Amino acid sequence: MNKTISLNRNLINFGTPLSLFGVLILLMKSSFLTGSSDAINLAITADLLLTVPLVYFLLIRKTEIPKTTVVPMMIIGLLIGSYLLPQGSQAYLTIFKAWVLPVIEVSLLLFVTFKVRKAIKTYKGVKGATPDFFNALKNTCREILPTKLATPFATEVAVMYYGFIHWSARSLQEHEFTYHKRSGTPALLGIFIFIIGIETVAIHLLLASWSNIAAWVLTTLSIYTGVQLLGFAKSLSQRPISIRKNSLALKYGILSEVEVSLSDIDHVELSRKPLAKDSLSEKLSPLGEMESHNVIIHLTRAYELTSLYGKKKTFKVLGLHIDQPKVFKERVEKGLL
């Protein structure tokens, strides 16, 4: 019943502004705008950029939908007007692009920056918690974006942050453990980046003789893939595994993570044996069999492992690599007492 009500409510929330956009599209494609006056052009532009977003805001103001989604609704109106309004009727649209849109973009950037800094300060104030940019970013994105878009967007931003901005070495605290120093993952990702670089040059030269556009599109995609791999590799050293007061925060860079309660840990096993081939046995690393594990954590109940871009996997047995497995096992068992 509740799901039906929620579905009907969302249909109204999103269907109403989309219907209004549809009416405006029909109006713009009709002969009505031919030789239209300046007042009509202003009215159409105002409807696209202000009226429809305002109606959408009034519909969602008492719901859990982030209020910042009004901005994407405004961008939709801007795109519709840019493609469908006659070129001679886009004077007010041009003014909006030149003066209003940059202000909105800068305001959103400042808002996100403020919220992330605030979230990081909150982490610093929690005993046993370590400031974590990715967690702070995800929490911020959940406040300003639809739930399904929050984690993918945060992941893309984090790739750039870890790959190009945050390169300083991270000092570990007593309750934190690395997992990248004695594993082959950084080297493996480095090899992938090298291969992508070599193949990109070769394929670009080959495609350029057929189509420059296709060559540069493929090259751009390849470069972006390399940037993603670099961000993934750098995030491994910035997001250590940590034992908290009542929980164990298991992270594998920005590629996967889960936090389990210490009370739900049955036992920790130091072993490299293969995991059982069943649906409740997973590896923390998304690389699977390409990376070996030396620790197996057995739980008393199932948990969900969050993988890249928010994908979920259920498990009760988790294999992972720890650079200091014996110390890790001792610290976890101490926390179980």
How would you characterize this protein structure?
The chain has 337 residues and is of the alpha+beta class. The protein has four domains: 2-89; 108-165; 176-238; 241-336, no CATH class. The chain contains nine helices and eight strands. Strands 1-2-3-4 form a four-stranded antiparallel sheet, with helices on one face. The chain has a four-stranded mixed sheet with strand order 5-7-8-6, covered by helices on one side. Strand 2 (241-243) and strand 3 (247-252) form a beta hairpin. Helix 5 (133-144) packs antiparallel against helix 6. The mean pLDDT is 85.
Helix content: 55-70%
Briefly note the structural class of the backbone.
alpha+beta
Q: Radius of gyration, Cα only, in angstroms?
A: 25 Å
Largest sheet: 4 strands, antiparallel
The coarse silhouette is elongated
Number of domains: 4
Number of helices: 9
β-strand amount: 5-15%
Distance between the termini: 45 Å
What low-confidence regions span 5 or more consecutive residues with pLDDT below 50?
Answer: none
Total number of beta strands = 8
Task: Give the overall pLDDT as a whole number.
Answer: 85
Please write the string of helix (H) and strand (E) elements. Answer: HHHHHHEHHEEEEEEEH
Question: How do the strands of the widest beta sheet line up side by side?
Answer: 1-2-3-4
